[in-house]
Write a structure and sequence with these properties.
Length: 551
């Protein structure tokens, strides 16, 4: 297996709107990130991934870009970005940007031109179709509820938008569109950016016959109609050859519909497409019969199987990304851990998991202090377009809205978007103005300042785990094997290569659990635990992690 910097890196994801506000408008900004670089560096991470900071009308918080070469003035503009990039490099870290290439904003100049007439030179930058009578061209639905088509009155045709109406899909069949995107990648790479996280890249190649959906199963719609289109790998290879391969940059493609079967096609190094992908096999694991807002308990054997299967499937030619949360999902401690009595222990356990699996670990801002889900009492307090649209749709279809609000509490993307909790002062030290999204009321106890003051905080544990991963390359490259795949409470695995062998146990339950198959303990040294005092035994306390090193 080839060794590279991005396999050895630990990545820290920033959602700039919610990170740190220096201008007092309640919205995080780039100077706010610069102010916190000491903090980020102190974690021991190597790479910062910035969610979109380009000019945008913010219909989907930056995932609707109106100018790919301009940094949003609200975030501080180009000068602030240049300073950030310089400083990040000065700290010996790298900076990865988000690239949203499946769609632009409807306020992008390409689209305002395209709308003007059927023969406008930009018309074919987007996907236009005639309606069927007074109905849209087909029954495709948007990820964010409702039809995926919007009629434009000027030309009486419909355009495709898999996300909001303000995010028209780009037409990748058009070579000019592809060249525009490659030029944008080149533009930022020339400025010294160290890589790209490519938003919904699995969706860029569309089925050209736009077949009508014959299922309402959301996963099936994505897999069979929207994702992994006929030319996806041709496009990614072309992108790689034309631009990516000219730079020492990393790429991670985000993708609904990327699965075990097609995953290697994106990341197998011989194919020269992308370095890594984000799949969602473990992230949709708790969706219930009525979908995302009807969550069910996470089944541990299934959860473990996702990691084992992907590890087996990708190696040795591909490389994985390990993440348990991001700006699109609820907080990892609330979802996969226990955000009540065992918040500290379970957040540490999840940190240990994140940092001891094979694949590049991605830490989402705030998870390093164990930030939790939030439960606003009314839908009016939610901002996320996906949540708000899903709410309206549920209401219209007569669902039990009290139950739905519960689902929102558990599943809304806003759970991960509440402002970063820096200290116990007003607005959690995020801003001195009322923030764009309310602060989680637990900020008085859950915050960075408190965590920095404590020797056994979640934050401290993250730092220790990151440095452990740096100390032992076995934790990066070593083989992975699940020793108890069927166990309902424990996740037990080995990481092993010529240099070292680790035996790692996590107790995903509120009970004390003993692992009967534990090998003879005299061969093992207990290297680390998330409990202050831990015995080198085969018994684990609630949410306990034990990391053993073979002697
Ligand atoms: O958020 C999701 C599940 O709740 C996903 O379906 C999500 O919409 C999908 O993973 C794509 O996400 C990415 O593209 C979206 C943007 O809203 C997300 O923030 C982004 O990460 C459209 O650009």
């Amino acid at each position: 297996m080839k060794r590279t910097w991005w396999k050895e890196s630990v990545i820290y994801q920033i959602y700039p709107r919610s990170f740190n506000d220096t201008t007092g408008n309640g919205i995080g900004d780039i100077p706010g990130i610069i102010q916190k670089l000491d903090y980020i560096k102190s974690l021991g991470v190597d790479v910062i991934w910035l969610c979109p900071v380009y000019e945008s009308p913010n219909d989907d918080n930056g995932y609707d870009i109106s100018d790919y070469r301009k940094i949003s003035a609200e975030f501080g503009g180009q000068d602030a970005f240049n300073e950030l990039l310089d400083k990040v490099h000065g700290y010996g870290m790298k900076l990865v940007m988000d690239l949203v290439a499946n769609h632009s904003s409807d306020e992008h100049f390409w689209f305002t031109e395209a709308k003007k007439s059927k023969d406008n030179p930009y018309r074919d930058y987007y996907i236009w179709k005639d309606g069927k009578g007074d109905q849209p061209p087909n029954n495709w639905v948007s990820f964010f509820s409702g039809s995926a088509w919007k009629k434009d009155d000027t030309t009486n045709q419909y355009f495709l938008h898999l996300f909001t109406k303000k995010q028209p899909d780009l037409n990748w069949e058009n070579p000019k569109v592809r060249q525009e995107i490659y030029d944008i990648i080149e533009f930022w790479s020339e400025k010294g950016v160290d890589g790209f996280r490519m938003d919904v890249i699995s969706l860029i190649s569309k089925l050209q016959d736009f077949p009508p959906l014959d299922t309402s199963d959301y996963g099936e719609i994505i897999r069979s109609y929207y994702a992994n289109g006929p030319r996806i790998h041709e496009y990614l290879h072309e992108m790689n050859q034309k631009v990516l391969s000219k730079y020492d940059i990393m790429t991670v493609g985000e993708g609904p519909g990327i699965d075990l079967e097609n995953g290697p096609l994106y990341v197998n190094e011989d194919r020269e497409e992308l370095n890594m992908v984000f799949h969602f096999d473990h992230m949709f694991i708790d969706n219930g019969p009525l979908g995302k807002y009807d969550p069910v308990a996470v089944n541990l054997p299934r959860f473990k199987k996702v990691f084992s299967d992907w590890d087996k499937r990708l190696h040795p030619k591909g490389w994985g990304s390990i993440f348990l949360g991001n700006h699109d999902f609820s907080r990892m401690v609330s979802r996969f851990g226990n955000d009540g009595e065992y918040r500290t222990q379970s957040a540490k356990l999840l940190a240990a998991l994140l940092l001891t699996l094979r694949g590049t670990p991605y830490i989402y801002q705030g998870d390093e202090i164990g930030m939790t889900n939030v439960a606003f009492s009314t839908i009016d307090d939610y901002n996320d377009v996906e949540t708000v649209n899903a709410w309206k749709e549920a209401e219209a279809s007569g669902r039990d809205m009290k139950k739905f609000l519960n689902g929102v509490h558990r599943q809304s993307r806003d759970n991960a978007r509440t402002p970063m909790q820096w200290d116990a002062s007003a607005y959690a030290g995020f801003s001195d103005h009322k923030p764009w999204l309310q602060i989680n009321p637990n900020y008085k106890s859950v915050n960075v300042a408190a965590a920095e003051d404590s020797v056994d905080s979640i934050l401290q544990f993250y730092k220790e785990m990151i440095s452990l991963r740096k100390e032992y390359s076995t934790l990066v490259y070593g083989d992975f094997k699940d020793l108890a795949p069927e166990h309902l409470q424990l996740f037990v695995y080995v990481r092993k290569d010529e240099a070292a062998e680790f035996l790692i146990l996590h107790n995903f339950s509120e009970e004390e659990v003993t692992w009967p198959d534990m090998p003879k303990l005299d061969q093992y040294k207990l290297l680390k635990s998330n409990y202050a005092s831990a015995e080198a035994s085969k018994t684990l306390q609630p949410w306990q992690t034990k990391i053993f090193l073979k002697q």
